[in-house]
Specification:
With about 350 residues, the protein is of the alpha/beta class. It folds into two domains: about 190 residues, Medium-chain alcohol dehydrogenases, catalytic domain (Quinone Oxidoreductase, Chain A, domain 1), CATH 3.90.180.10; about 130 residues, Rossmann fold (3-Layer(aba) Sandwich), CATH 3.40.50. The protein is built from eleven helices and 17 strands. Helix 4 crosses helix 5. The two termini are about 20 Å apart. The structure holds zinc ion (2 copies).
Length: about 350
Amino acid sequence: MSELIKSYAAYNNNTPLAPFAFNQKKMTDKDVMIDILYCGVCHSDIHMSRNEWNWTRYPIVPGHEIVGKVVQVGKKAKKYKLGDIVGVGVYVGACEVCPECKSGNSHYCDQFEGTYNDIPKNSKQPNYGGYSKQIVVNENYVLKVNKKLPLHAVAPLLCAGITTYSPLKYWKVRKGHKVAVVGLGGLGHLAVKFAKAMGATVTVCSTSISKKKDAQKLGATNFLISTEKDFFTKNRNKFDFIVDTLGGQHDYNSYINLLGLNGVYICLSFPQQEIRLSSPFTLIEKRRTVTASKIGSIKETQEMLDFCAKHKIVSDVELISIQKINEAFERMIKGDVKYRFVIDLSSLN
Ligand SMILES: [Zn+2]
Ligand SMILES: [Zn+2]
């Protein structure tokens, strides 16, 4: 019998996460086994733990912002060796033959296999995520992490980081561009750091003046209070890009009108309900684009991690023990975190 792996799981949609132990999946030749050091806490973890998207399999071990150390490698796994510091993000498998996979976009594959909750081919057990001591992953879905960065602060880059980096890269944000970041939370604070490092002039739009100092510290040149009376008229047609990280329902039309000619509106967070465009002229008037994107490919995630090492970018985090996870969920729902919780897995014994 193999040793049981300790973790924290949600057993159903309305009780707190609690200790759980599972049998590790069998290593295949291409797998690496990783002892988990840190795991970031993503808002998806809350949605999934509570079955808010209606596809949760219980018990569920969340966590897809994983940093750890390689402790075993499969016979045909060549990319990593024992002791390497590595990362695992939101997905650990794809079909590898469809047009999306073949064009380097396996994160859009219909057979996308999530790091937790999804059931791999030829298995009955769902994947268990990073709120645990250990994970086994195919080497092709493992990322190299630069040991010089503070590793606990690297963890959120594996989901929040790539989610913000990928669209900025895709739309070629660079020097001379004016980028507005709406909402300064887990995603927003990384959007500011990335857009700034890519050379853009960054403006943070927030409802709270209390965020001004933080915005400047993160690299924003300008700060605007979005609840001020003339905010939408004064800033009309002003930006090349808007990165919208507000989760709840809000006035999309007014925000889109802040874009100038060929401006791009990047939605990174969504309300549960529909998004309404009040008039097609909101787009037509300035040939504006409204778009969204989903994390990033493995190749792009590696590129993002290398970019972070070069520009010394990490997430601002609050490190917690696994025993504080339920409290962390409650605080995240209130927006009370700067800017991402990260679990120190050494607390799980
Ligand atoms: Zn996530
Ligand atoms: Zn595919």
